[in-house]
């Protein structure tokens, strides 16, 4: 398996623009997580899905952030409008409930810079 | 509110030495405590994990020590190697589903 695939790897945009981050989880995994990583706050859970249904979005910073999972193989995280403080690395991770060690598999992340 | 507090923020250890990273938590309902390792430009990857029914778990050079009464757990890396240089995150979860991470420790093992 290719692992969790995220795109783009890098995104540079201007304040006020819409940004869409994409994630393809590992086939067969029924949980998908979006995390944001910054130096100050470390890894923060934004939202997670189980069987394509959002379970907990309490970590989503504000209404500018939205996430969808239209099917088992694809999820998006959208920021509209983007702001400089959104600059961070965004990770997608997936896992299968009951997998040995309950291991999260992370993608390589999207480095977002909002100018 | 930081649910898992991690220290130190950075650590420099000589090759062959012992690296120790500490974490503390407040939520007594946490029942799963993993450590993740992250190399630059990569996502975190599971290194080792423990459940509160044991006080220690060892895998190769990596050991987790767990103190339930103190609500603390730590990662020990024995015989540290330059290849261990990475950022290490402790984490905790309740009923698995919501994994909360510490702020990370940047480890540098000098040759």
What does this structure look like?
The complex is a heterodimer of chains A (115) and B (111). Chain A has 115 residues and is an all-beta fold. Chain A contains no helices and 11 strands. Chain A has strands at 5-7, 10-13, 19-24, 31-38, 42-50, 53-56, 65-71, 74-79, 88-95, 105-106, 110-114. In chain A, the strands form 2 sheets. In chain A, strands 2, 4, 5, 6, 9, 10 and 11 form a 7-stranded mixed beta sheet that branches. Chain A has a 4-stranded antiparallel beta sheet with strand order 1-3-8-7, with no helix packed on it. The relative contact order of chain A is 0.33. The mean pLDDT of chain A is 93. With 111 residues, chain B is mainly beta. Helix content of chain B is 0%, strand content 57%. Chain B contains no helices and 11 strands. In chain B, the strands form 2 sheets. In chain B, strands 2, 4, 5, 9, 10 and 11 form a 6-stranded mixed beta sheet that branches. Chain B is globular. The mean pLDDT of chain B is 93. The A-B interface holds A 4, 31, 33, 35, 41-45, 48, 50, 55-56, 91, 93, 97, 101-104, 106-109 and B 6, 32, 34, 36, 41-46, 49, 89, 96-104.
Features:
heterodimer; A: 115 residues; mainly beta; seven-stranded mixed beta sheet; four-stranded antiparallel beta sheet; 11 strands; 54% strand; globular; B: 111 residues; six-stranded mixed beta sheet; five-stranded antiparallel beta sheet
- Net shape of chain A: globular
Could you tell me the radius of gyration of chain A in angstroms?
13 Å
Structural class of chain B: mainly beta
Helix content of chain B: under 10%
- Element order, helices and strands of chain A? EEEEEEEEEEE
Task: Give the strand tally of chain B.
Answer: 11
Largest interface: A-B, 24 and 21 residues
Topology:
The complex is a heterodimer of chains A (about 120) and B (about 110).
Chain A: E1 5-7, E2 10-13, E3 19-24, E4 31-38, E5 42-50, E6 53-56, E7 65-71, E8 74-79, E9 88-95, E10 105-106, E11 110-114
Parallel strand pairs in A: 2-11
Antiparallel strand pairs in A: 1-3, 3-8, 4-5, 4-9, 5-6, 7-8, 9-10, 9-11
Chain B: E1 4-7, E2 10-14, E3 19-25, E4 33-38, E5 45-50, E6 56-59, E7 62-67, E8 72-77, E9 86-94, E10 98-101, E11 105-110
């Amino acid at each position: 398996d290719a692992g969790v695939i995220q795109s783009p790897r890098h995104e540079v945009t201007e304040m006020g623009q819409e940004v869409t981050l994409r994630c393809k989880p590992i086939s067969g995994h029924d949980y998908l997580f979006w995390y944001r990583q910054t130096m100050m706050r470390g890894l923060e859970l934004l939202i997670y899905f189980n069987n394509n249904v959002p379970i907990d979005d309490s970590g989503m910073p504000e209404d500018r952030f939205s996430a969808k999972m239209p099917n088992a193989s694809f999820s998006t995280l959208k920021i509209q409008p983007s702001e400089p403080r959104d600059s961070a690395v965004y990770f997608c991770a997936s896992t299968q409930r009951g997998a040995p060690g309950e291991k999260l598999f992370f993608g390589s992340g999207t480095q977002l810079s909002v100018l | 509110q930081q649910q898992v507090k991690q220290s130190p923020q950075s650590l420099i250890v000589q090759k062959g030495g012992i690296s120790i990273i500490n974490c503390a938590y407040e939520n007594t309902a946490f029942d799963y405590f993993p450590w993740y390792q992250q190399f630059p430009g990569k996502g975190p990857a599971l290194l080792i994990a423990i459940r509160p029914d044991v006080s220690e778990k060892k895998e190769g050079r990596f050991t987790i020590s767990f103190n339930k009464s103190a609500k603390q757990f730590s990662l020990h890396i024995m015989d540290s190697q330059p290849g261990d240089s990475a950022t290490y995150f402790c984490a905790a979860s309740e009923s698995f589903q919501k994994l909360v991470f510490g702020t990370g420790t940047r480890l540098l093992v000098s040759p």
